[in-house]
Amino acid sequence: MSSQDAQATAENAGPLVRPFAGLRPSPARAADFAAPPYDVLSSEEARVQATGRPVSFLHITKPEIDFPPGAAPAGAALHEHAGARFRALCADGRLAADSAPSYTLYRLTRGRHSQTGVVLTASIEAYRDGRIRRHELTRPDKEDDRVLNIEGVGAQTEPVLLLHRPDPVLSAEIKALAAAKPEVKFSDDEGVGHALWPIADEAAVKRLNARLNGLGALYIADGHHRSAAAARIAEAQPEGAAAWFLAVAYSAESVRILDYNRVVRDLGGLSAEAFLDRLEAEFAVTREAAPVRPGGRHEFGLVLAGQWYRLSLCNPPAAEAPALERLDVALLASHLLEPILGISEPRTDPRIDFIGGVRGLAALEAAVASGEWAAGFALYPTAIEDLMAVADAGLVMPPKSTWFDPKLADGLVSYPFV
User: Residue 374 is part of a domain; what is its CATH number?
Assistant: First the structure.
């Protein structure tokens, strides 16, 4: 969609976002409910983290953890179990409904990094017409799972992370409102700080609403499967609550993208020596004594057989090349993964997996040292500007191009359908 088409659509379409009456735990117990996004932890990791935490939303978003490994019911029955737990939390008052539609400020902190955004519901209509823009393809099986979870629970409990271009007036309004003491404030097991300010003042809600709906476009940063699942549900229930999805919107310059690294299971039949020889046709290969964190675009770290190498692309794209062509995740695929290793579809090929940068280069080393993976690749983080440029062009990035950190928590504000 061109910028002129997008502007015309925005001028003639319904609202981009709206406030809503959410379901929340009491401020004193919010930390007990908070859980990482469903796709950050494996089922076993979630089972361990939820032990002794009966109200953790991991029981809602990953209901298989309530059953012995391999014994969980399949499909809708599994998520009906999650729904029963959720409804019990509502029935006994451990989750209580807001008295009126409102916005909530949500601050995430990790170390010196801090970002404050707005909890809201975003329009499915805007998602369909391109005012809420995507940059990733989704996997049907993951979409199906999230559809069943939303339907079984009767609410959206997992917020989508949205970005918007900087708006100084909106930022000033958020800063002023967040000067008050937050209603909820805690740090999770990973050291991430969470703080929430429900906005009860009607005038402030109206000001936020005006600025948010004047943004023109929002960008999905994290949560493509959650938003796609909500859109599928809206096809069957086009009116009312199902026409919106739960999200938190942040200004693009305030968020942080970490590297999203790769491991491969084998070298496509090549020996380590032959693989390194093949690399030299496309990369300058330098042996290094320590783990290699790329220092800039078009540079990669490689760990292979206990040894680290620095790979520098010999013929990088020009600075003015289209955003999709200068992405390091795309260049690694086109110059190495596909032509040398034969991995052409990383979304589905079991020979490749992905490790978020928050786990560090040690995770790449450990994966390769385990013998399960033959090599690991460290990448330079994707730039926010490139993400937005790709989305503006209506294109999609390779899978697992971005790892946003810190992550939103589930369970702090839920969006009920009834």
Answer: 3.30.1760
